[in-house]
Amino acid sequence: MRKTFGILTSGGDSPGMNAAVVSVARYAEQCGVKLMGIRRGYNGLLGKSENELNDIRQLRSETVLDILDMRGTYLRTARCEEFFDEDVLDKVAEDLEKKHHIDGLVIIGGDGSYRGALDLCKRGVRCVGIPGTIDNDLPYTEATLGYDTAVNVCVDAVRSIRATSRSHDRPHVVEVMGRRCGDIAMRTAIATGAEIVIVPEMKWDLRDVIRRLNEQITNGNARATVIVCENAWEDGNMAEYPWRELLCKNGICVHGDTPFSSRHMAHVLKYECDIEARATVLGYTQRGAIPTAYDSAFAFEAGHLAVELLLNETPAENDGFAIGVRDGRVFHSSLRSAALKIDPRPFNEKLYNTINTLPYLPREDDLILIAAGNVKK
Ligand code: ADP
Description:
The chain is of the alpha/beta class. It folds into 2 domains: about 190 residues, 3-Layer(aba) Sandwich (Rossmann fold), CATH 3.40.50; about 170 residues, 3-Layer(aba) Sandwich (Rossmann fold). The chain is about 40% helix and about 15% strand. It has 13 helices and 11 strands. It has a 7-stranded mixed beta sheet, with helices on both faces. The chain has a 4-stranded parallel beta sheet with strand order 7-8-6-9, with helices on both faces. Strand 7, helix 7 and strand 8 form a beta-alpha-beta unit. The radius of gyration is 24 Å and the shape is elongated. The N and C termini lie far apart (about 75 Å). The structure holds adenosine-5'-diphosphate. The site of adenosine-5'-diphosphate has 17 residues, from helix 4.
């Protein structure tokens, strides 16, 4: 009998999700497999819409061919609270088999979506995960779909910011995404020559940032860039540093429970380093970009492999497959170990220290600036 597969995108959207959908659709068609597109992540499996076509509809390759480099996700995405409920999961697994006759499911999403997929595997659903997240926070794989694109967005933005920083001789704090993974921040910092990088993997201290920036300024570099990963704020040794008092004293009202942010850091640097500093949060621009060639190519290979695995391979009991990159090549591993992050990837501490300790050697321009006493605000 002709096989039917389903595909969905779940969790945070990431560039390349559409390219993976196209790849699965094309190869499924080539193999004579019918493909159903499930809309709005796991929500599309709950059978809630009055019109079923709003949740699940057939995807033909000619329908989706033009979405290859489309931004966002064509299938839409969502978070689905009901998926934590065992009874809902039982019903979804039953419907997939008996109502929709779906023999295998491709899930494009992050670790949360993988855990949802694993719950379906335990109920006999064959699942393959494609790592769709810009954060690169799945340790089993060197790269996730959208990570390269997000880094390129950040690099582009930081280059622009560094140009204006140079024009004005003032430092800049740039906040990038990554959840609890500092990969976007690290790669952006290396690629742009940023002087300071702050990531959740490493404890840091605001006093060190002030010291480092002051050193740079003294050597004539008044345009240093501080790259911060979004969730690194809480890893800073803030309790010992009176930043609230400092800002309040200087007329910036912060309450006792105000969390530290890139804007606050720019203010603190202004008073502690005696220089006008600025802050930019790059935010969702990192999610909505057109996929780079790397992400599009990864999506193509991952989609192809997903169909192959569903057609020809049997996973271990209660497990599925997760596609990733190892030693630069697309491969597959156990969905369980991928979802539960069983093999943590070591953080590159050496590189982190290199970025954060690299001295600035003054150029002729800088010496003139220093001599003119023109470095500070
Ligand atoms: P991401 O996939 O980007 O990590 P989330 O963590 O928000 O995004 O997860 C996406 C969806 O996956 C959730 O809304 C939920 O439907 C499902 N999910 C997450 N964790 C679990 C879990 N432990 N069990 C079942 N489903 C889960």
